[in-house]
Sequence to fold (472 residues):
Amino acid sequence: MQDLYRKAERLYFLPIGGTAMAPLAGLLQAAGHHVEGVDSGLYPPMSTLLDELGIVARIGWDPEKIPTDLDRVIIGNAVPRDNPEVAAVLERGIPFISQAEAVAHYVLARGPRSLVVAGTHGKTTTSSLLAWILEACDTDPSYLVGGLPKWNRHGFRLGDGPLMVIEGDEYNTAFFDRGPKFLHYRPHLFILGPVEYDHADLYPSLDAVLTAFRAGAAQVPKTGAVVVNAWSDHALAATRDATAPVLKVGSEAGCDLVLSAWEPSPEGGRAALRWRGEPLELSLPLAGYHNAQNAALALAAALTVGLDPDQALAALARFPGVARRMETRGEAAGVTVVDDFAHHPTAVGVTIAAARQRWPGRRIVVAFEPRSLTAARRDFGAAYLAALAGADLAFVAAPFHSGRLAEGEILDREALARELEAGGVRSLMPGPGADAVEVLLPHLRSGDVVLGCSSGSFDGFHQRLLDALEAR
Fold:
């Protein structure tokens, strides 16, 4: 595929440090373009990725430092219209497109068929599972994942094969394009995981969420397919307008891929499968029934594009995993510290359940940072109560975006603490500015498993906790 990228362009990423922007910067650099960018701040793992790739990333907005000979600016959804560098780009008439448009313009227009992984939960894991299968089966795929697979800590690959896996985010594309990113990705397969209400700052209702996913499914041509998680009624509802074949993955007999008899173990799990009547067996080195569902979706997609079932299943059995998805960061003083991206209540709940499977008999301590605007909202209080009820001790930090919400809209942590305590879950709800490590450290003992859950940096919580435990 690389020979199709004939004209090298000078591209400027505004901003460059996000989980979608940094891997795309690397992908376009691999395609032969000169890539640089700016951000208000950078943190691992994306700062590490940019350093490894040798991509220059300036810190701090400064319109005077925007290069004068750019071919195009790629604008992400993390910057508003009033960002000073955005304003300068518009005033100077510099050509610009969104991150999602850049994927279509620089990559998909060159020929690969896109396998777009969408849904409220499991996108990064399912995308990585599918990319791993395709790569292990020697299809020489391209992929762009919103995370860092453990066998390729860059999160992207530019191959010469005919297929490209893309994680399809439903969040808005840019300040000038309020639609979901995946509408730009021209899906040959639209792989739809579970769908729930999320991104309350963007979607006013579940119906609005369903409308977005329905548009994605409707884009698939009749020569492609929609592969859907049939455990999720909302995901099934989102396929309503599809004209392409709809392939169901679930536990019911009528599904195209049936997963049954799930047998969990600390090492992962096994399940019986049936693909269009053919019996198969899944062995997966990931804890959690939700990951069995993710793997089944990825497998169904791989089989739909013609891969050999035995080869695909062999690949799944040795899947290396994904950074920040139940990733053990270390152990100190007998305490295991685990990093996970979980932030939606459902994701927090299934992560706790998977931790109990992975570390049976140990005390599960959850340190949760409500980082997103959705996580900060009072509306999700009951759902977080249900999720955190599975922990033995729950620490919930002050919502990161409290200043952007009215007082009555902010997650009521006092009520959450009362309900958790009444249910037998010890709770810690410190005030704004409290240090998570300092608050949590006195309550930890040897044998604990600490799940640090956040969709952001969490102020380096995991490593700082390990350091503090080591020094204790």
